[in-house]
Amino acid sequence: MTCTTVLGATGRAGSAILRLLPSTIEVTAALRKTEDLSRLPELGRPVTGVVVDIDDPVSLRRAITGADVVVNAVRLRGDIDPAALVDLHERIVEATRTSAGSSVPIVTVGGAGALNMPDGTRFWQASSFPRRTLPRGRAHARLRAHMEASPAELPWAYLVPPPDFDPDGPHTGEYHMWPPGADESAFCAQTISYTDFAEAVCAAVEERWTGTWLVAAPQDR
């Protein structure tokens, strides 16, 4: 049985992923505090809750030990440092590293700010990018660049939703994947609900996706 630890399990994206992970996967939900157990969605299946401080490598290792895949659905808020998501990713990598030096796959819920624009900039730098989420958009762009430059032996998948990432959108069970490219501006016109995006994350866990993928609703809908 595949064992998966979900970081950010009580957030909207994390909760959607928890609800859709198949029963064949053993799930550990990482929580900020014990009381957050009550915030987990009703799943009709056993889920192990573990309190974790994502800033503490020892705490992260304790939460991740035994996992075959880690899902990073953490959504840092506020005026975060541009390197905050890179630093978190590196702590997760180190927490998953075995005595032999290998790491388990990390599936990350990405951000639209990391999308490539035709002039070589990222979407977070566009005038249309929401100012209130600019720090997170900038941090996601740096995280994507960092992951794409990481050694080939480090297994990861970075899934990018479109700017219209709808927390209350319908669950259709459908999504479409686009490979990364130098000009991803057309993807800015796409949309997807959190639950349909969660379907893609679950597939990434089960099928061990690797690399960067842009994920949105099918265009013919």
| Strand order, largest beta sheet | 3-2-1-4-5-6-10-8
- Termini separation comes to 35 Å
Largest sheet: 8 strands, mixed
Q: Count the DSSP helices.
A: 5
Percent range for helical residues?
25-40%
Mean pLDDT: 93
Order of helices and strands: EHEEHEHEHEEEEHE
> What structural category do the secondary elements indicate?
alpha/beta
In total, the number of strands is: 10
Molecular structure report:
The chain has 221 residues and is α/β, with parallel strands linked by helices. The chain has helices at 12-20, 57-64, 84-96, 134-148, 194-207; strands spanning 2-7, 25-31, 48-51, 69-72, 106-109, 156-160, 164-166, 176-178, 191-193, 211-216. The strands form two sheets. Strands 3-2-1-4-5-6-10-8 form an eight-stranded mixed beta sheet, sandwiched between helices.
In short:
This protein is an alpha/beta fold and 221 residues long. Helix content is 27%, strand content 20%.
Brief descriptors of the model:
8-stranded mixed sheet, two-stranded parallel ribbon, 221 residues, 10 strands, globular, alpha/beta, 5 helices, 27% helix
Secondary structure blueprint with pairings:
Blueprint: E1 2-7, H1 12-20, E2 25-31, E3 48-51, H2 57-64, E4 69-72, H3 84-96, E5 106-109, H4 134-148, E6 156-160, E7 164-166, E8 176-178, E9 191-193, H5 194-207, E10 211-216
Parallel strand pairs: 1-2, 1-4, 2-3, 4-5, 5-6, 6-10, 7-9
Antiparallel strand pairs: 8-10
Helix pairs in contact: 1-5, 2-3, 3-4
